[in-house]
Design brief:
Length: 145
């Protein structure tokens, strides 16, 4: 991870952090290798993260970087999966955003890319809210009699 010195810089507390220009696809590859996530979950995250990088590439016609992992981009990306029926469950949108939040959280926990607030290292996507899931959708047996 971050083998090239050009992709890192040293913070005041002497830790190495990735630059915002670090390729997002490389960060995702590092996440896939290192994240403590079950294989089935990781497969779903991989699809979602690939779609996000492809969406960013099409949007900006440039290679996505960590700087593109923003609240605004994540929200706009998730909106592509919002059902047209406002009463329909928003599972697909939610799953895409969960994958992005997991990546951002992992980056912050590893002190690789984060927002610093005092000594706290916060996830870039910590304020991104997931679409609600109705309780009857979350527990189908609750409505079956």
């Amino acid at each position: 991870m971050a083998a090239q010195r050009a992709w890192t810089f040293t913070t005041e507390d002497e830790s190495q952090t990735l630059k915002p220009s670090y390729p997002l696809t490389e960060a995702i590859a590092d996440f896939r290798r290192d994240a403590p996530i079950r294989e089935t979950t990781l497969r779903g995250y991989t699809v979602s993260l690939r779609l996000f990088t492809e969406w960013l590439q099409a949007k900006a016609d440039a290679r996505p970087a960590l700087a593109d992992l923003t609240y605004e981009n994540a929200s706009a990306f998730g909106a592509n999966f919002r059902p047209t029926d406002k009463h329909a469950p928003r599972y697909t949108e939610r799953n895409k955003l969960v994958a992005l939040k997991a990546l951002a959280k992992w980056l912050a926990e590893r002190h690789l890319y984060f927002e610093a607030r005092g000594d706290q290292r916060l996830s870039i996507l910590r304020d991104l809210r997931l679409p609600p899931v109705r309780s009857s959708d979350a527990n189908p047996s609750a409505t079956v009699r």
